[in-house]
Design brief:
Double-stranded beta-helix
Amino acid sequence: MLNVTGAFRINDARMSPLWTAWRDATMSKPFEGPSVWTGADLAADRSWTYRLTAADIRELDAARRHAERAGADWLTVTRETFPLDAMARRLQGVADQLETGRGMMLLSGLPVDRPQDDIRLIWMGMGHWIGRPVAQDNTGQMMRDIQAEPGDLGARHEKMADAKGEVFLSSKARTYSNGQLRYHTDRTDVVGLLMARRSASGGESRVASTAAVYNAILQRRPDLLELLLQPIYRSRLGEEAGGGDEIYPLPVFGIRDGKLTSHYSRTYVEAAQLRPETPRMSDAQWEALDMLAAVADELAFRMMLAPGDIQLINSHITYHARTAFVDDAAKGESRLLHRLWLSMPNSRALPADQAVLWRNVEAGALRGGIAVA
């Protein structure tokens, strides 16, 4: 099968014999393997979950105490200052499953009724044994607290103005609200979310298999899948170092060496359309994005994370979303998750056109995250 790793210009794609040959070969059959699943599959087979044992927790606490004696905190901890033995092998197995298995793992039972700095130290230490933490914004933020903030989010985070002059919030700003988060991927190989506190209601997590979504669109509307294999313009929305909000083209789906990857957030597409120089999205392209979201929700696994749960998802082969939630601070029910972005040493190679986002597309490369000022 042809292995095309470069980008095709939108206006030239249908006219290129190379594109036509690659499209025909790529769309000739669906993806197979453990990364192709539905919500019903995950409900029936819980092999993607693991509950920490008392021995695991003792080992993690011993590593925390070792780090503290070495003068390390959650921001400076390393593998060397957070030594693990049996848990190191366990976490390596988690990393393997994220790349070659379902693309999602759930670890549960981490005690969170302790000081937040202790939780952060353990979680960051675990992160170093799973992958390599990368920055989540242009100030170098290495662990983000995902929680609802009061007041005007647009005054504190990146935003644009739409055609009516109304505030259009960045994807980052939306994570600080209690509203719905649509199906998307993050700019990292693996996203890790540790639930410290749950909300009074709502906040359901939904995860869908990218390959299953791809297969469903291939079966139902191959004409729309073809559009998702071609570049769609997005905006950087001021999140990069320097604050630029330039636009760039990138397909929703990419394939290299027979392996799928997807990068998608409708927010960045909508933001690009607010700029006058951006080529206009066609009705068919919007329909393709609508279908992707609908199919993802149809096939997704739904879960309510509990305090002490750690959800790990491979961004290349899963989409994730969150429903709106309601906090009750008086009852101590204010949703709080500690998020890590991890670059994975066992990651897949990506198509060459993905370098506009990932910078380095080779297998196992240190990549992803936000460029730091």
